[in-house]
Design goal:
This protein is 34% helix and 26% strand. Bound molecules: D-MYO-inositol-1-phosphate and calcium ion (3 copies).
Length: 267
């Protein structure tokens, strides 16, 4: 992909993200059809589905040779990341969308041969767009986000953490998580993985730890966090597989290893 092709891909993606967000805002107060998926708390609405359909149609119309990997099943059965793949979460934070009518995002990551090239995280109700191109910096609207601080003590860090991992659970040793909670300055839980990545990129949160995310939750966020010098791996420090669900540790690089080595152990 040359610079011109990358710019035009970016421009189209940005236009579609803003258009999808505008559509959601205009329909925000209409009654919603809400269904559940894997369990009673796993919600999906017709807005999640319609928004993913919108992206899949736009992408297929303009880029028939690109692949689409999406949460709601309107994409392709993606088996590898050869060529260009759009990784789309039409609404990240569906529970917030349903219950709060805010604090959700559209997340679109564009990968070429497995490498994250472009990322958009759009906080729809705040009309706030986080965006990045690889090697060209990350932005919040028109503002370039500075590189993350070189060194922060873990005692002064704010970490994003879902309470699920602090109570007895099947995946991670909650005692390590308790020690981490006592060590850091504070914890937050925003209910949208994409926004938590955006906040790390913005430097207003220092780490985000969770035990099971899908590629669409993290694709755009990875591009953003890398651009400001942050690190994203599985919670044990291993590299991420963009075709699989996995644990995630996204952080300011200076505390990444310390968290994964000293505070996270799997059952
Ligand atoms: C969810 C949100 C949530 C995270 C869940 C995700 P969805 O995505 O990002 O914050 O804790 O693991 O599945 O289903 O609202 O797109
Ligand atoms: Ca979902
Ligand atoms: Ca999601
Ligand atoms: Ca979603």
């Amino acid at each position: 992909m040359n610079e011109q092709q990358k710019q035009s891909l970016y421009d189209n993606a940005k236009r579609w993200v803003l258009e999808a967000g505008e559509h959601i805002r205009t329909k925000m107060h209409q009654p919603l059809v809400i269904e559940t998926k894997s369990n009673p708390d796993d919600l999906v609405t017709e807005m999640d589905q319609d928004t993913e359909k919108f992206f899949a149609e736009k992408i297929r119309e303009s880029y028939p040779d690109h692949k689409v990997l999406g949460e709601e099943g309107f994409g392709d059965d993606v088996k590898d990341l050869d060529g260009v793949t759009w990784i789309v979460d039409p609404i990240d934070g569906t529970m917030n969308f349903v219950h709060q009518k805010q604090n959700f995002a559209i997340s679109v990551g564009i990968f070429k041969d497995g490498i994250g090239e472009i990322g958009f995280i759009y906080d729809v109700m705040k009309d706030c767009l986080y965006h990045a191109k690889r090697n060209e910096g990350a932005y919040k609207n028109d503002q370039l986000l500075p590189a993350l601080a070189n060194s922060i003590p873990l005692e002064e860090a704010i970490i994003g953490l879902n309470s699920t991992w602090a109570v007895p659970n099947k995946k991670v040793d909650e005692n390590g998580i308790h020690r981490l909670i006592r060590k850091v300055r504070g914890t937050r839980s925003y209910g949208s993985a994409a926004l938590e990545f955006a906040y790390i990129a913005e430097g207003i949160m220092d780490s985000y730890i969770t035990m099971r995310l899908a590629p669409w939750d993290i694709a755009a966020g990875i591009v953003l966090v890398h651009e400001v010098g942050g690190k994203v791996t599985k919670a044990n420090g291993e590299p991420i597989n963009m075709l699989d669900k996995q644990s995630i540790l996204a952080s300011n690089a200076s505390i990444h290893k310390e968290i994964s080595m000293n505070y996270i152990s799997f059952k």
